[in-house]
Amino acid sequence: MNLANIIDGHPTEHVALISRNRATTYGALAEQVAGLRGGLAELGVNEGDRVALLVGNGRFFVVSYLAVLGLGAVAVPLNPSSPAPELTRELATVGASTVIVGPAAVNAWRHIDRAEVPLVQRVIATEGHELDDATSIDELIMCAPIPVLDVSPDHLAVLMFTSGTAGAPRAAMLSHGNLMSNIDQVIHTETVMQASDVVYAVLPMFHIMGLNVVLGISLAVGATVVLVQRFDPSTALETIRDRSVTVVPGAPPMWVDFSMCDAPPDAFSTVRVALTGAAKMPEEAMRRLDERFGIKLAEGYGLTEASPIVTSSGGGAMKPGSVGKVIDGVQVRVVDETGDDVLAGDSGEIWVRGPNVFQGYLNDPEGTARVLTADGWLRTGDIGMTDSAGFLYLIDRAKDLIIVSGFNVFPHEVEEVLLGHGGVSEVGVVGVPHPHTGEAVKAFVVPAPGVHLDEDELIAYCNSELARYKCPSKILFVDELPRNVTGKLLRRSLA
Predict the structure, then answer these.
(1) Cα(3)–Cα(6) distance, rounded to whole angstroms?
(2) Which strand ranges, in their side-by-side order, compose the sheet holding 438-447?
(3) Are 417 and 274 in a shared domain?
(4) Are 258 and 230 within one domain?
């Protein structure tokens, strides 16, 4: 098997991708992927090599991703808008030997200290952007094609950075079998996507929802994927209308914006499936979407470690406040502190098991052991409950985890960055409610003795070290932080 084969068997003339108003058929996509596969092999990319994709949503991401998988190499999708220090840490963590750089990442790549990523041997640039030591992806796509490598289901396919169920960001190891299993599980559970669909793809491909649900399932069923770099409500509505979009997956902030935008009642008349997940969708926004546009928004639940879908209401079974039912091929338990199942209606930690559950965290056996039981159950760290009909309800997120626009932010990572500023003595970071992003990052900072700190300056410092969604939107300066008798920070008191 090989996940790259998901584009096989579809009519060659059917449109697979629309990117920057350019259509790519399944036949052309297969040719480009095969050519790039050959080009990467000529450059010396081998089975098991880690190839970082610093590329936004577009044709080159899709071609690169499938070509890397087809070689038996490991794709590492990264946020191309991240600053150089964060990309440096991630590239060093995975031991990337090849980096594919899109326009959004060119400036950051130029500021990366290559001595800190010594394993990088090859740099490939997309769309004609010049980098001194880069090879053009256009040249590689024209190389002689080579066949897809047949691999075992447990062969590593993707390293996806996630905050995990607890701890600082780490690379989750997802195999070909993990990713393909979840695609099959969703397809067999419900008809969310089909070959005739046109799918709006603005969820970033460096996020597991964008990668394996929006892209993976769409290509597996032979649908058309409209790739969008960044979200804007007005242009999104134009795209949905002009392309007759039928499936719209999106994080809650996107749907909140849609619910408040000035648009005609028939703005979503072509849309038959509207999906959301990654964070709790405000019920008031769901009501507005229904009343104004007739949109019945289907919520689901998943996480990177589950490739990602665990439950869904996309098949038509919906209940207010619920994230749907468990999809076929996945097992879910809700357990108490001792690991025993709780009764329906009682709350507990959600555990997940199935072939979609990941292999563990890269080079972190202790972290892996904390979340994977000996018999294969994934401890999600999320608190939920089920009702008598089998619908799952989320009550709380993993302890301390902040969810910003569907992205995980772990306070410890932000705190470490702030402590790197010479004027910061102590810091505590928590999530606070936000009307558009679900939550926002808020920091409480104790300045070093005799130091005067400026809030805007400190936020700008964070922006130079972290992705924007991880940066505090508000910083309060305090004399001391609340701690217990052992000195542990009491985040609940801050919140």
Answers:
(1) 6
(2) 424-434, 438-447, 474-477
(3) no
(4) yes
User: What type of residue sits at position 486?
Assistant: T
Domain extent, residue 485, equals 402-494
Is 223 within 8 Å of 199 (Cβ atoms)? yes
Largest CA distance in the chain: 70
Q: State the Cα–Cα distance between residues 189 and 209, nearest whole angstrom.
A: 17
> Helix H segments across 225-332?
233-242, 252-260, 283-293
Tell me how many domains the chain contains. Answer: 3
- Determine, yes or no, domain membership for 159: no
d(CA 205, CA 184): 19
Look at the block and give the residue holding tokens 């130079």: 464
pLDDT tens digit at each of 495 positions of the chain: 999 999 999 999 999 999 999 999 999 999 999 999 999 999 999 999 999 999 999 999 999 999 999 999 999 999 999 999 999 999 999 999 999 999 999 999 999 999 999 999 999 999 866 788 899 999 999 999 999 999 999 999 999 998 654 456 799 999 999 999 999 999 988 777 999 999 999 999 999 999 999 999 999 999 999 999 999 999 999 999 999 999 999 988 899 889 989 999 999 999 999 999 877 777 788 889 999 999 999 999 999 999 999 999 876 678 888 999 999 999 999 999 899 999 999 988 999 999 999 999 999 999 999 999 999 999 998 888 999 999 999 876 666 778 898 887 878 889 889 988 989 988 999 999 988 888 999 999 999 888 999 999 999 999 999 999 999 999 999 999 987 644 567 787 887
